[in-house]
Every structure is written in structure tokens, then in C-alpha cells.
Amino acid sequence: QLSPSLNSFHGRTLFTVNVGGQSKYSDGFGPKITGITHVPYNDLDALKAAVSDKTCAVVLEPIQGEGGVLPAELAYLQGARELCDANNALLVFDEVQTGMGRSGHLFAYQHYGVTPDILTSAKSLGGGFPIAAMLTREDLAKHLVVGTHGTTYGGNPLACAVAEAVIDVINTPEVLAGVNAKHDLFKARLTQIGKQYGIFTEVRGMGLLIGCVLSDAFKGRAKDVFNDGLSC
Fold this sequence. Notes:
By secondary structure, the protein is an alpha/beta fold. It folds into two domains: about 1-170, 3-Layer(aba) Sandwich (Aspartate Aminotransferase, domain 2), CATH 3.40.640; about 175-230, Aspartate Aminotransferase, domain 1. The protein is built from eight helices and nine strands. The strands form three sheets. It has a five-stranded mixed β-sheet. Strand 3 and strand 4 (about 70) form a beta hairpin. Keywords: Aminotransferase, Pyridoxal phosphate, Transferase. GO terms for molecular function: alanine-glyoxylate transaminase activity; identical protein binding; pyridoxal phosphate binding.
């Protein structure tokens, strides 16, 4: 059994749209995959109720992207780690959106000091060039040997060379410090705009993954706000 979060996003294959817990992606693709129990994000009690000795993995985004730019609470990730350890389950962090410096660390899990068993990365890993990777412990990696599974971009020499160059550029103190400095600037300015015009009730996120919660007067009008802002 799997215990992913509600309103998460993990891809567009038949399996991953089911794991994501968003009907707008999974409706129309069937049959529905059984054994998946979606849990409200940051709800540790709900996660405790869902995880058992039948659970093979808990799948999380350290910061929910499509779910509303919701950073995980430290206690939630720590609790997830403890639950997985107690039930011999794997803790999987999907860092396709949060990884590669976007959060102010190379990977967002580093903010928390909670290490997953499996981490997924893609997109920004190649700086725009198609590549994806699954990172895991050595004792787990031996179960997925060459030929066990395949991927269009797996092991592509050009993609791997590009990814290596991207990591060399991003994973430096200067670049990561710049991400955090820009976060402080954006958050301060957006908070100021929210107070001045009553448009935002909260500005949240990490690094350059930032979201603004619209006030009641502007709910449902995100496109209008965006378009009006561009025309100013």
C-alpha cells in the first residue's frame, strides 16, 4: 500500500496520476489503482492512521507545489520518517519541483534534516534539457539493476553531461545565497503589496518557490490579477 498526500502531483502516467490525488488528472484514466490512501498534507494524525505494516512507501513533496505552495511542517516530516522506520516502509520525496536550488538548498529536504530513502529529480536537473533521476540508498539501488526498467532519457550521455554542468553551477554557496536573498526580497515586497491593497492574506514558500494566498475579495480571480498586473 502507498500513502501519498492529497492534492499532490507526481506525474502523468496511469500510476502517478493515481498517486497524485487530484481528480482533474486521474479522471478518465482507469482502472483506478487500489492500495493508495491519500492523506491531508501536514496532518500527522491522519498519516499515522493510514500507515501500517502493509505500507510499502509514504510519498511526499517537501513543499507541495500544485497543492498551494505549502511547505511541510518539520514535525510532519519527522513523524513520517519515524512511521516509515517503524513499519519497514520507504520514505519517498518528490523533488522535481523543489530540487536543484529552488528552495535555497540543493534539495528542499536539507532544510529539515529529514533524509528520504528515495528522491526523484527532473526538469531543472537538466537546466531545460530533458532528464530525470531517481536517487536512493545503495542497498535499495541493487534491486533496480540495468534492464529491470527503462526510460527514454535514462543514461543519455548528453543529458547526463548537461545535468553535471547544471549541478556544478547551481550547487555553489553564491547561487544558493542568491536564491535566499531573492526570497527575502520577494516576500517583503509581496507582503507590502498585500497589506497596501488587501490582495494577499499570506505569502509562503521557500527560496524562489513562493505562493500568495488571495484574500476573500480576490478569490477565484487569480487570472484577472495576473493579467491586470501585466498591463500596468
